[in-house]
Amino acid sequence: xxxxxxxxxxxxxxxxxxxxxxxxxxxxxxxxxxxxxxxxxxxxxxxxxxxxxxxxxxxxxxxxxxxxxxxxxxxxxxxxxxxxxxxxxxxxxxxxxxxxxxxxxxxxxxxxxxxxxxxxxxxxxxxxxxxxxxxxxxxxxxxxxxxxxxxxxxxxxxxxxxxxxxxxxxxxxxxxxxxxxxxxxxxxxxxxxxxxxxxxxxxxxxxxxxxxxxxxxxxxxxxxxxxxxxxxxxxxxxxxxxxxxxxxxxxxxxxxxxxxxxxxxxxxxxxxxxxxx
Amino acid sequence: xxxxxxxxxxxxxxxxxxxxxxxxxxxxxxxxxxxxxxxxxxxxxxxxxxxxxxxxxxxxxxxxxxxxxxxxxxxxxxxxxxxxxxxxxxxxxxxxxxxxxxxxxxxxxxxxxxxxxxxxxxxxxxxxxxxxxxxxxxxxxxxxxxxxxxxxxxxxxxxxxxxxxxxxxxxxxxxxxxxxxxxxxxxxxxxxxxxxxxxxxxxxxxxxxxxxxxxxxxxxxxxxxxxxxxxxxxxxxxxxxxxxxxxxxxxxxxxxxxxxxxxxxxxxxxxxxxxxxxxxxxxxxxxxxxxxxxxxxxxxxxxxxxxxxxxxxxxxxxxxxxxxxxxxxxxxxxxxxxxxxxxxxxxxxxxxxxxxxxxxxxxxxxxxxxxxxxxxxxxxxxxxxxxxxxxxxxxxxxxxxxxxxxxxxxxxxxxxxxxxxxxxxxx
Lengths: 277, 427
Fold this sequence. Notes:
By secondary structure, chain A is of the alpha/beta class.
C-alpha cells in the first residue's frame, strides 16, 4: 500500500510518500507555500525521487492552509489532526504538542489513545510565528538558520515585545542602535516567540514532556526559550517540519485499511447470507 | 399606515419579515404623530413601554441588520473618523454612526450619502432611551452618549452582576424600584398615567411570547432535528423587539406548527445529512452569517442549541414587580461562571449536542471572556469537545473565514475520532 501526504502551509510545502502506513519512501520540504510554485515543486520532487506518479497511490490526503488547492486530492484533513497524527506516530505516548509554522502557532493535547482532546491556536496576530522570526532576522541582518546557535551565546537576553510584530521590529532597531549585542537580541526574540506558544500550551494543559513540531522547531533557541518558560523538558519531533505531511499520509493509509476491512466484512456477510440452511 | 394584511396565509418566515417592517413603520408613525419613540437595549423591560404606548426601536437588532446586509463598514467608518476606538463594541459604533447621520439629516434637512446607502431599516430618532446593563456595561456609556448627543432622557435600569445565584432578595427589590421609577419618568414624559390593568395584559402577552419562543428552541431536541438553529438567530428579532406584542407570539406559534409538521413528515433541517449537532455560544457573526452557516452545513454540522436566544427566557409571575425585576436580572450573561456553564450545559443536553463552538467576539467582552472556563465545565459534564473561534458580531474585518473553517473542520474530526474511540474497546 502506498499513500501520499501533502502539507501546504503559508510559508512552505511538504510531502511524504509512505509505504504500508509505516515506512517513509520519499519526503521533501520546499520553502514556498500556498499560492506559489512550492506545492507543484514539492510534488515533482517526491515523485522524481521515488519514481511514483499519481496513479501509484492507494490514497492521498492534503492538509495545511492551502489544503483546498491540490485538485488531484479529494481528501482534505485539518492540520490540527494531521500534526497530532504525525507526532503521535513519531513520538509514541506524546500528550502535549506545540506546532509553530509560518503563520500559525498551535498547542494540542492528546489523550492516552492519541486522540486530540483540546487545541488552541493564535488568532489574528503573527507574533510568535515563523513569520515573526523571519521579520526579526531581516532586521538583525542574520540568516534565519544562524539564530538558533546565537541564542546560546546570550548572557543577558533583551526584552522584546510579544504583542505586535511591527512594534517588536522597531524595538529591535532601537536595541541595535543602543549597541545591544545581537545574541542578546536574538535570545529576546526567542523568548518573545515563546510567550505565545507557552500561553496556548498552558491553556490545553501540560502533561509529561512537550514535543515541538513545525518549521520553527528547527530553531533550537526557540525550543530552549519555550522549555525555560515552561520549566519543562521540550523535545523536537523527528522530521519536525514534516509531521503534518506524515500525519496526512498516515490518515490516508488508515482510510485504505478501513476500506479493505469494510470490504472483507461485507464479503463475509454476503457469504453468511448465502450459507446453506 | 399600510393596509391590514391577512397573516393567516403567511409562513412564519413571511410573518417575521412582515412584523419587523410593521414595527419600524409604527415607530415612524409615532414620530410623525408626536408620540414617544424609545431606543432600547435588547433585554430591558419592554412591558412598561408597551403599556405606555411608546414605540420601541432596538439599536442592537438594527445594527445586526446593517451588518447582515453588508452595510457595517460605512457606519464603522463614520464613528472611527470621529475618533471612536475599534476596540469598542461594533453594535455601539454602528448605532452611534447611525444616530449621528440621522441627527445631521434632522439638523440640515439633507440626507447624508452614507445614510441614504445604509441597508438597515429606517428608524426614527428617539425621544427617550433606556438601557439595562444585564447584557453588558458598554451600554451605559453608549446610551449616555445617545442621551447627551440628542438631548433626550436616559432611563437606566441597573442590573447588578449576580456573583451567586439565585438573585439576591435585595437585588430583586432594587430592580423593582427602578422599574417603578422608570414608570414615573414615562408618566412625566408622556403626560399620561400608567395603566396598571393594561400592564397586566402586556405581562401576560410577554409570557405567551416567551412560552412559544422556548417551544421553538425545544424543537432542537428532536434527533434528527427539524430545526436549524441558525433560524433561531433570525427569529430572535421578534423576541427582542416584539415580545410584549402579539406579533412575536403569532409568529412563533406558526413557526412551532411548521416545525412540528416537518417533524411529522420526516423533513429535517439537513435532510439525511445531520452528521453532528452543535451548541453555538455567542452572537452570530452577522456580516459572515452565510459563511459560518454554510461551512457547518457542508459538513453536516447542525446547530441544535444556543445560549444566545435563551437570553430571552424571561419567565416571571404576573403582577409581581420583583419577579419581573428578577427575570431581567438573571439573564445568563449577568450571572456567575457556574450558572453560565450550567445554562450552556443544559442547552447542550437539550439539543443532544456532540460539540460546542464558541464565538470569541471582539465586540462583546462580557459574553466571551468566560467562554473557555464555561467550555471546560461543559466539556467535563457532557464529555464533548469544544473549539473557540475569533470573530465579531458586526465588524467584518475581525473575522477570517479560513481560520473559522479550520477550527470547524478540526472540531468535526475530533468528534468523529471521539465516536470511533467510544465504539472501540478500551485499551
